[in-house]
Amino acid sequence: MAVENTDIQEKLLATFNSDVFNFQQERDIFSLEINPAVNTAVILFLKNDPSLRFHFLTDLCAVHYPQNEIHRQFAIVYHLHNWYDNKRIKIKTFIHGQTPEIKTVSNIFLSSNWMERETYDFYGVNFIGHPQLKRILNMDEMISFPMRKEFPLEDGGRTDKDDRFFGRTIDNC
């Protein structure tokens, strides 16, 4: 029997109460929001429950929302997949903007090692307990995080390009 959204929601609510909320169907994916303090417990539960069987972490990423209140400025998004029933689920949790940190899931899904390092590299999110949290694609000397909204899109000091060739002139503004 295929796993249904109502089954997932009932099991999560029975186990985690108010730490799981905002359940909704977004196109073809069932999504929910969780309290960041229970991220590892929820993901471990979804993986180990014999009827849910979300054994595959498809993706882990972050989104920066600088316009949100300070304790909801970064979202960490997990996409899990149940191959048996071909069911996908999206889990979103918001973390603090001044000190973006959350517990690692690399001890649950080994594949998250790279994804967490990439999220750290581009957003500056500290994954507590990660075995080797360091930059993976950018230079180690880099002090900023390029996917944050405050990061400039272009280097203002560049002299090797002419904006006229890109349709950006004073006349177009």
From TrEMBL:
Residues 33-154 form the NADH:ubiquinone oxidoreductase 30kDa subunit domain. InterPro entries: NADH_DH_suC (IPR010218), NADH_quin_OxRdtase_su_C/D-like (IPR037232), NADH_UbQ_OxRdtase_30kDa_su (IPR001268), NADH_UbQ_OxRdtase_CS (IPR020396). The keyword Nucleotidyltransferase does not apply. It comes from the Bacteria. Keywords: Cell membrane, Membrane, NAD, Quinone, Translocase, Transport. Coiled coil: none annotated. SUPFAM superfamilies: Nqo5-like. Its main location: membrane. GO terms for molecular function: NADH dehydrogenase (quinone) (non-electrogenic) activity; NADH dehydrogenase (ubiquinone) activity; quinone binding. It is a peripheral membrane protein. It is found in: Cell membrane. One of its GO terms (cellular component) is plasma membrane. Its EC number is 7.1.1.-. Pfam families: Complex1_30kDa (PF00329). It catalyses: a quinone + NADH + 5 H(+)(in) = a quinol + NAD(+) + 4 H(+)(out). NDH-1 is composed of 14 different subunits. Subunits NuoB, C, D, E, F, and G constitute the peripheral sector of the complex. Belongs to the complex I 30 kDa subunit family. NDH-1 shuttles electrons from NADH, via FMN and iron-sulfur (Fe-S) centers, to quinones in the respiratory chain. The immediate electron acceptor for the enzyme in this species is believed to be a menaquinone. Couples the redox reaction to proton translocation (for every two electrons transferred, four hydrogen ions are translocated across the cytoplasmic membrane), and thus conserves the redox energy in a proton gradient. PANTHER family: NADH DEHYDROGENASE [UBIQUINONE] IRON-SULFUR PROTEIN 3, MITOCHONDRIAL (PTHR10884:SF14), NADH DEHYDROGENASE UBIQUINONE IRON-SULFUR PROTEIN 3 (PTHR10884). This is NADH-quinone oxidoreductase subunit C. It comes from Flavobacterium crassostreae.
